[in-house]
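Revision sheet: structure tokens.
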Amino acid sequence: MTHLERIAAFVCGSDMASMPAVHRARLRLHAADAGVALIAAAKSPEGRHLRALARGRGDIEGTAGLATALIRTAETDDIHLGSCVTPTSVALPAAALTGAREATTVENALRVCVELAVRLGRAIDG
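Predicted:
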């Protein structure tokens, strides 16, 4: 099985319910932290500048990029030291913007996004 096939199998087979409860709780806490960082940063001077730069760009990529940048400016998001990645700053906007309506689907997307961000960071040695 190739690396890409293993990643695809993980993405397609990911199920939040199969995660240990302690890991689910930690993921939810990181998501809540990132959400609070997003809200707080949006009101900061840096956040206002970022929002002004993104004005008029209403596509999903621009929205996700703005949300990620805002979360990162707060400097309170999680960091995975082994990969040198702050995965939830990328994963939360991506998961939230999937268009999913069920919480479990958004949680599964969040889990997959975090895992893929960490795997990519590790693959390139941070």
